[in-house]
Amino acid sequence: MKLIKNLFLVAAISGLAMTGSYANDDLVKQGEKIFTTKNLGNCIACHDANGKNIDGPGSMGPKLTALQYWPEEELYKKIYNPYTTNPISQMPAFGKSGWLSDGEIKAVVAYLKTIQ
User: Fold this and answer.
1) What's the domain of life for this entry (predicted)?
2) Under 8 Å between Cβ of 21 and 38
3) Of these four, 45, 48, 97, 105, which has the most CB atoms within 10 Å of its CB?
4) Sign of CA dihedral 96, 86, 107, 99
5) Is the pLDDT of residue 87 over 70?
6) Residue 109, by phi and psi: left (phi above 0), alpha (psi -120 to 50) or beta?
7) Exposed, middle or buried by CB within 10 Å (0-12, 13-18, 19+), for 70?
8) Is the pLDDT score of 52 beyond 80?
9) 23: phi > 0 → left, psi -120 to 50 → alpha, else beta; which?
10) What is the mean pLDDT of the chain?
11) Three-state secondary structure along 52-85?
12) Beta carbons of 16 and 99 less than 8 angstroms apart
């Protein structure tokens, strides 16, 4: 009987882990869409997300590399209101201004965490 309970528990935990993974994948996809879509965040207009040196669009803001090492809270703060850490930032305060919702910023952060 104990073996059956343990197997059931393992199956339940595995199911929860898979559900979280699918939810995270959806969040990353939503974040990528916001990052690349002109009428949403349009982050790609100023940021290069693959680390290549380019001229023109994507070269105004800093190149986005190794963001998997950044704390999610820091990325969120920089998108919500970059002026708190850099008063002369040219990046808009996407959250403070209401351009992006809390959920949209979290989606962008989830996408940014996948950038190598």
Assistant:
1) Bacteria
2) no
3) 105
4) positive
5) yes
6) alpha
7) middle
8) no
9) alpha
10) 79
11) CCCCCCCCCCCCCCCHHHCCHHHHHHHHHCHHHC
12) no
Per-residue pLDDT at 17 exceeds 70: no
Mean pLDDT in residue range 61-74: 90
Q: Are 76 and 30 in contact (CB under 8 A)?
A: no
CB 96 within 8 A of CB 80: yes
Residue 44 DSSP symbol: G
pTM comes to 0.74
pLDDT for 115 beyond 90: no
CA pair distance 42, 58, nearest whole angstrom? 10
